């Protein structure tokens, strides 16, 4: 794969420069070049996230009214340092406290917790929720070890909307945690991704095979197996999530199909059609459907399926106004 | 590249099934399986388009309130038949006439014109505008031969908004034509694309090279040359368009960077940053910036740059409410 890049070691800087130049009505750069903040700050609980780059539109694309107030941007596939999380907390705080809603990875966990201690010294109250939606990354008995992937979108949208509606810090945290508890995802990878500064794929997927349950950085999945048809893959992904949920009745669900980078929107809709058919056959009611590149893995070929067990509050907050650049117009 | 597909010969059918299942609040399938229509029809001029598949979210993603009322969907990279265009016209008409706003390709031109003749027999008045934004596809002296690429977005958004605001058929056509006259695009390709039913790339781009001015189906561009830095490429694309425009004063512009398929959003923002810098250096004022996959070419690696010479009416219509699934939330 050839790409558009200047110095690959500075691709994140160049991206940030382009992003803030493109969207000055939404997001601003800050003194810390790796922290981007919302343009119009409101008197409310601040909501932030952070993480490695390479997952665009996450996390930058979710800065905006009704979603995130600030994000800390790391190098590609690497956590931002504690200082960047702290600076994002400082940017987002206006006396109502800050909710830090991030995906469960060792580096992010460590740096967020250090930043929270540092924020205490600045008299900023910070609480956090950790997305753990990737069912392939750890068994159900150790759910707290699971990684956060595209399901983070729902945590940010719902947490952000709760804060925008005037929720207290504890309310924002409780609502974001509720969404996390009701969200499951799984990925399938069919082509590897390449870190620009490395220039060669950081793992391989053999021809005619796929990696079921691959992680968002190419982490080993559940099983390498023969590449199935879109129908077989969609059914297997859906059933893996339903098995994990162990629903004992029909549910109202949200479904997100996210391309991991180089997977065409056409393919995403092919998968989506079968996922919706399978959920209907199992008696579930799908209330909301999202299809597109919401959380990616550089140029990986693959797809994530996320399912959310909705309740009335979550539906209302998903439908609340939001103005981030990564949000779709529906 | 491995992809998610059932029978590659039926990937368009499977995509359409997934699309209409995902977005029943926006778009509906019709008796003609290759025509998708808006759910809530309004009493106004109908606005339609059509074209080959493989350019998603175009054209399907632009069906919705304030944009398109119906689209005719062709096979991958192939025009829909005249009957599909006619059926889209019939779906979109409610007595106020239909504006068919399509991209300039031989097959589409022929089939639209046949469909217009057939529509006359049904007492439906149809007028059309042809997007010709791709400056690489023909010299300026033969501008009418140029192909339509991502610039079509502006024709659909502005034409759709004009119709939604109650414009007559002649007003919708005049406004869409004005936008076409003020829009220029150019592409750079760095990796080829693969038609699913073929399974191998339909053209090649040698390593360490790029194709400046490549078309949306891999049509030969202006020049095959050494792959430059993102900065060099962005400057060259911007200057090619400015040279074609021959502005004699500072202008208010809209800029769209569209990925062609497998090009990361990160790369798109890197290119965008330099395009905006170059336009500013030349004294132009960029009023609106769009970054993302708006019109693609299957899984091609590459990018298109589109620049629109705005006026107050175009700005107002671009900012008008729209609800299509391919629209961004800004």
TrEMBL record, chains A, B:
The keyword DNA repair does not apply. Keywords: Kinase, Transferase. InterPro entries: DhaK_dom, Dihydroxyacetone_Kinase. Residues 7-327 form the DhaK domain. PROSITE patterns: DHAK (PS51481). GO terms for molecular function: kinase activity. This is Dihydroxyacetone kinase subunit DhaK.
């Amino acid at each position: 794969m050839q790409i558009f890049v200047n110095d690959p070691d500075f691709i994140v800087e160049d991206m940030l420069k382009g992003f803030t130049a493109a969207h000055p009505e939404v997001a601003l750069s800050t003194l810390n070049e790796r922290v981007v903040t919302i343009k119009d700050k409101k008197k409310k609980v601040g909501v932030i996230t952070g993480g490695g780059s390479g997952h665009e539109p996450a996390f930058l694309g979710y800065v905006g009214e009704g979603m995130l107030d600030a994000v800390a941007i790391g190098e590609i596939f690497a956590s931002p340092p504690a200082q960047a999380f702290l600076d994002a907390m400082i940017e987002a705080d206006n006396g109502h406290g800050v909710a830090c809603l991030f995906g469960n990875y060792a580096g992010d966990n460590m740096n967020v917790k250090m930043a929270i201690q540092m924020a205490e010294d600045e008299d900023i109250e910070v609480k956090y929720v950790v997305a753990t939606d990737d069912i392939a990354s750890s068994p159900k008995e150790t759910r707290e070890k699971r990684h956060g992937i595209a399901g983070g979108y729902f945590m940010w949208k719902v947490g952000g909307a709760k804060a925008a509606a005037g929720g207290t810090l504890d309310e924002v945290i409780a609502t974001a945690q509720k969404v996390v508890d009701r969200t499951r995802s799984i990925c399938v990878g069919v082509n590897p991704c390449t870190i620009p500064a490395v220039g060669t794929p950081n793992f391989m997927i053999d021809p005619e095979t796929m990696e079921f349950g691959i992680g968002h950085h190419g982490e080993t999945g559940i099983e390498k197996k023969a590449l199935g048809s879109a129908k077989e893959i969609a059914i297997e992904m859906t059933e893996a999530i339903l098995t994990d949920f162990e629903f004992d009745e029909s549910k109202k669900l949200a479904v997100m199909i996210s391309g991991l980078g180089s997977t065409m929107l056409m393919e995403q809709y092919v998968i989506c059609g079968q996922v919706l058919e399978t959920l209907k056959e199992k008696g579930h009611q799908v209330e909301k459907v999202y299809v597109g590149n919401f959380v990616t893995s550089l140029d990986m070929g693959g797809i994530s399926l996320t399912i959310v067990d909705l309740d009335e509050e979550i539906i209302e907050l998903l439908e609340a106004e939001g103005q981030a650049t990564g949000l779709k117009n529906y």
